[in-house]
């Protein structure tokens, strides 16, 4: 067992809670994510002092204050850059980045895609409420075309980012999606993200009760959630519906939703989810599904592929160079150069 780990029963969720009053609006989806993160960390059993939570600016970026771990509330959009530095300097730490759709995908977009591309071993929690909440209701990079907000009173005239597409386009090896009202699955997904070696991106569809209330209700409402979402699990059939009577098949090059027993489709025709496939073609298609295009929204771990990590390769390279160089101290280094004595 890693020296930083204990048995899961050794820690409880309360061990990761700080004594600070949680200053989010009542009903905000951030409360649910915080609760799930405490539980996930307890299940992982990583000591609080071996954990660091980094954030940028925004409602979600207040999260480090509510963690009994090391934390760093940084500047707008730069959380990924700071988290990269923390992990590179202290690779033994479990590093988490709390960020929002505005902080991460607008001003922080460049840092985000390069953290993913480099495959730095950090866990990125992307809370997506499709709005700027802390700055009082402007549209964000994930707001839908035509969205009316304080900064788009006549509706936006641009198309949004799809975080799954962006992450995989940046050569991401782990992407998952969950919803704030599903605490059990969210906790499990956070655990899987932490176990992945490399950059993990978890998109949390989160509600802002003040500036964008019920933005995800078309998929998360219990009345139709089973029909409009699908919980993907590696190695299992892609089934959904109230009684798992529906599933996904390939129709030419495209995914298709079918009902088992109709149109000649049987359970054997339903695709099996392979999150470990190095080819991300199907993962991209799964990430882009939505009820608007006649398919259920994919939840769970969509992609989970092993690859060399930036911090691991960096440390290996440094040790290799050090092994070839007899210089061990700053004084030794200085004495290898031209020296002179001043009398």
| Average pLDDT taken over every residue | 94
How would a crystallographer describe the biggest sheet?
A: 8 strands, mixed
Rg on CA atoms, Å: 22 Å
Instruction: Report the count of strand segments.
Output: 11
Write up this protein.
By secondary structure, this protein is α/β, with parallel strands linked by helices. The chain has a domain at 8-215: 3-Layer(aba) Sandwich (Rossmann fold). It is 29% helix and 17% strand. It is built from 11 helices and 11 strands. The protein has helices spanning 29-44, 79-89, 101-107, 109-118, 163-169, 183-195, 217-220, 225-228, 281-287, 310-324, 330-335, and strands at residues 51-55, 70-73, 94-100, 123-128, 174-179, 200-205, 229-232, 239-240, 246-251, 254-259, 297-304. It has an 8-stranded mixed β-sheet with strand order 2-1-3-4-6-5-11-7, with helices on both faces. The protein has a 3-stranded antiparallel β-sheet with strand order 8-9-10. β9 and β10 (254-259) form a beta hairpin. The chain starts with 28 loop residues before the first helix and ends in an 8-residue tail after the last helix. Residues 1-8 have low confidence and may be disordered.
